[in-house]
Design brief:
Blueprint lengths: L1 H6 L5 E3 L4 H9 L4 E3 L9 H9 L2
Parallel strand pairs: 1-2
Length: 55
């Protein structure tokens, strides 16, 4: 799917990445983006705004 999407000029995002192994496999396969508990747990909008203002 990743290769087909890239041939169509599309970027690919994988959802539900929970382990380092999943992250590495998707990275090796050329996946463009990822989201899931491996990177961060969900946070509220207020917490997101607060974190973004700290930068």
């Amino acid at each position: 799917m990743i290769m087909m999407a890239h041939q169509l000029g599309l970027k690919v995002i994988a959802e539900g990445i929970e382990t380092a192994t999943q992250h590495e496999l998707l990275k090796q396969a050329g996946c463009d983006f990822g989201q899931g508990y491996f990177y961060a747990k969900p946070i509220s909008q207020a917490d997101l705004v607060e974190k973004s203002q700290q930068r």
